Amino acid sequence: MITMRRVALISALAIFLAGCVNKEQQPAPVDTVQPGAQPQPTQPQQPVPVVPTVPTIPQQPGPIEHQDDTAAPAPRERHYDWNSAIQPLAGKMLQADGVNSGSVLLVDSVNNRTNGSLNAAEATEALRNALANNGKFTLVSAQQLSMAKQQLGLSPQDSLGSRSKAIGIARNVGAHYVLYSNASGNVNAPTLQMQLMLVQTGEIIWSGKGAVQQQ
């Protein structure tokens, strides 16, 4: 009787131990929620934004620039035969009465009194060249005349413009006579007029004029 109780006790103990082993071998559940804890909401997956592509617009050609054919043409430069007009006038002036040999002569720049534009510097140069070796007058040099003009506040290229200014300059440089000249009339066929004046009195002792032809 005692032996049967022992067998039964051992069998019951073996069954109990086998149950404990099975419980230890079972894996623990994943994401077990603790009692009283709130479940975390699942974040929805954000969609990837799609950037629309911009269609390429072909480059349009710019407006074609046309050259303005109506632009004003550059003014034509006129050239004159000053020598043909100056030489005979200079010869007559040198033979005028009342002109003393060896006197000092101031040749003023030729003034433009025409109705257009002309290169008066060319006329002045031709006039000085015609009188350079005249044998009767000693000419005031271009350098002396330039310095005298600067003393009056004038540009060396400026014409004196009036007879009174020309006489005033002539007195400053010690000249006895002054030759005052201007081109007047139509610019296409100007007239060259020359006047020889006595510096001391301002008297015009000779005058002459001649036509100037274009080259």
From TrEMBL:
Bias kind Basic and acidic residues: ranges: 65-75
Compartment(s) where it occurs, according to its Swiss-Prot or TrEMBL record: Cell outer membrane
A molecular function GO annotation: enzyme regulator activity
Family classification: Belongs to the LpoB family.
Function: Regulator of peptidoglycan synthesis that is essential for the function of penicillin-binding protein 1B (PBP1b).
PANTHER family, sorted: PENICILLIN-BINDING PROTEIN ACTIVATOR LPOB
Protein name in UniProt: Penicillin-binding protein activator LpoB
Species whose genome carries this gene: Superficieibacter electus
Organism placement in taxonomy: Bacteria, Pseudomonadati, Pseudomonadota, Gammaproteobacteria, Enterobacterales
